[in-house]
DNA sequence: TATTATAACTAATGGTATTAGTTTATTAAA
DNA sequence: TTTAATAAACTAATACCATTAGTTATAATA
C-alpha cells in the first residue's frame, strides 16, 4: 500500500492550517492523521516526532511574523516606525493566536537550533532601535523593554486580566505604554 | 478497604509540593496518586477532576503571591513601593516558577470563579498606584502598563529570549523599564 | 527479472483523564 | 447488638495521546 503522496511539507501545511484556524498552538498526531486520511504511525515516515513537527511550524510562524513586521515598518523611521511596529505586533498576535502562542510557548533553553530560529524575531526590534544611534548596551536594554511591553500586554489581555476594567479601552492603554517607552528612549538619548 | 486517611487537603498539599519543587505548573493524577500511594481513580473520591485540583492550587498560588507582595510594600509609598513591588514580583516568579507559570497559564475567559480568585492579584497593583491620586481611567491604564512590563520581562527571560545579549545584566534592564514607567507616571500626574 | 528501499499498514506499550461498578470498613440508625 | 447506609478505597474499562516494532506492497533500481 505504497504512497498516498504524503510529504513532510504536506504534513506541516496541514498542521499550520489547523493552528491558524483553531487558535490552538498544537495539533495532535491523531487529529493530524485523521485530517490527512492516514493512520497516526504513518506520519513517522516523514517526521521524527512531535517536537520535530513543532519546530517546523515554529519556523513558519517566525517567518510570517517577521514578514508582517517588516511590511509594517517599511519606509518608516524612529518613533513612527516603533508605533507602526507595535500596532502590527499586537494585530498579528490577535489575528494569529495559535501561531503567536506557539512562538511564546517555545522555551529556547536547551536547543541551539531553536535559538537560531528565533534570532530574526529579535533582530526586527534591534533593527528598529538602531535608528537611534544607541550604544550596544543601551540597545540591548531598550530592546528588552520594548519586547516586554508588547508581549506583556498581549499576554495579560489574552489571559483575561483586562476584564477588571473591561470598559477601559485597551488600545489606549497600549498607546500610553508605547508613548512612555518613547519618552524614556528620548531621555536616554539626552544622556549620551 | 476503607480510609487511608486521604483528604482533599492532603491531595492539594502534595500537588503544591510537587509544583513548587519541580517548577512545572501541573501534575498528572497518575503521578499524584503514585506519590500518595493510592490508585488514580481513588483521587476522584476527593476532587471533581483535574480542573478542580488546578483551581485549588491556583488559589494557593495567588494567596502566596499576594502575601509576598504585601510584605514587600509594607511601610512603603509611591516610587519606593513600586520599586520594592517590582523586585518582589520578579523574585517570586523566579523562586516559584511552577506557581507563577500556573497563574500565568490560567485563562480567565469563561469561568467567573477563576476571575474572582484572580482579583486580589489585580488589587495589589491598583492599591500601589492609588497613592498617586490618579483618576479612575488613568489608574486602569497605568495598572495595565505596570503589569505588562513586569510579566513581559519574566516571560521573555523565562522563554530564553534574553540569551541574545546574555552578558547584558537583566536586572539593569528591569530597572530601566521601571524608571521609564515611573517617569511616565509622573508626567501623567503633571497633566492633571 | 530480482533486489532494495520506501511508504503505508497493524499491533503493541505506556502515559493521560475519566467513569462505572465492586468491595469493605466504619459510622449511624434500628 | 445487630443492621443498614455511607464513604473510601479498589478493579475494569474507555478513550485519547505519542511512540516503536514489525509487516506488506509497490515503485525504482540493479
Describe the structure.
- The structure is a homodimer of 192-residue chains.
- By secondary structure, chain A is mostly helical.
- Chain A has two domains: 1-47, Homeodomain-like (Arc Repressor Mutant, subunit A), CATH 1.10.10; 62-189, Orthogonal Bundle (Tetracycline Repressor, domain 2).
- Helix content of chain A is 70%, strand content 0%.
- Chain A has eight helices and no strands.
- In chain A, α3 (50-73) runs antiparallel to α4 and α3 (50-73) packs parallel to α6 (112-129).
- The longest helix of chain A is centred in the first third of the chain and has 24 residues, at 50-73.
- The N and C termini of chain A lie far apart (70 Å).
- The model of chain A has no long low-confidence stretch (mean pLDDT 95).
- The interface between A and B is large, with 47 and 46 residues.
- Chain A binds a DNA duplex (30 and 30 nucleotides) through residues 1-4, 6, 28-30, 38-42, 44-46, 49-50.
Which tags fit this structure?
homodimer; 192 residues; mainly alpha; Arc Repressor Mutant, subunit A; Tetracycline Repressor, domain 2; 2 domains; 8 helices; 70% helix; 0% strand; elongated; DNA-binding
CATH topology of the largest domain in chain A: Tetracycline Repressor, domain 2
Instruction: State mean pLDDT of chain A (0 to 100 scale).
Output: 95
H/E topology pattern of chain A: HHHHHHHH
Q: How large is the count of helical segments of chain A?
A: 8
Q: Give the biggest sheet of chain A.
A: none
* Domains of chain A (count): 2
Tell me the distance between the termini of chain A. Answer: 70 Å
Q: Can you say what the CATH homologous superfamily of the largest domain in chain A is?
A: Tetracycline Repressor, domain 2
Structural class of chain A: mainly alpha
Amino acid at each position: 500500500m505504497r504512497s498516498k503522496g504524503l510529504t513532510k511539507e504536506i504534513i506541516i501545511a496541514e498542521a499550520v492550517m489547523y493552528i491558524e484556524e483553531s487558535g490552538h498552538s498544537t495539533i495532535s498526531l491523531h487529529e493530524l492523521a485523521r485530517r490527512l486520511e492516514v493512520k497516526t504511525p504513518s506520519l513517522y515516515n516523514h517526521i521524527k516526532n512531535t517536537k520535530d513537527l513543532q519546530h517546523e511550524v515554529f519556523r513558519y510562524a517566525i517567518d510570517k511574523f517577521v514578514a508582517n513586521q517588516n511590511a509594517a515598518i517599511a519606509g518608516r523611521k524612529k518613533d513612527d516606525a516603533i508605533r507602526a511596529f507595535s500596532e502590527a505586533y499586537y494585530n498579528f498576535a490577535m489575528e494569529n493566536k495559535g501561531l503567536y502562542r506557539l512562538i511564546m510557548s517555545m522555551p529556547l533553553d536547551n536547543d541551539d537550533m531553536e535559538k537560531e530560529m528565533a534570532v530574526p524575531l529579535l533582530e526586527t526590534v534591534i533593527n528598529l532601535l538602531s535608528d537611534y544611534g544607541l550604544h550596544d548596551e543601551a540597545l540591548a536594554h531598550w530592546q528588552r523593554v520594548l519586547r516586554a511591553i508588547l508581549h506583556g500586554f498581549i499576554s495579560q489581555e489574552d489571559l483575561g486580566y483586562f476584564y477588571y476594567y473591561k470598559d477601559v479601552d485597551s488600545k489606549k492603554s497600549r498607546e500610553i505604554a508605547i508613548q512612555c517607552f518613547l519618552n524614556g528612549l528620548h531621555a536616554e538619548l539626552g544622556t549620551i
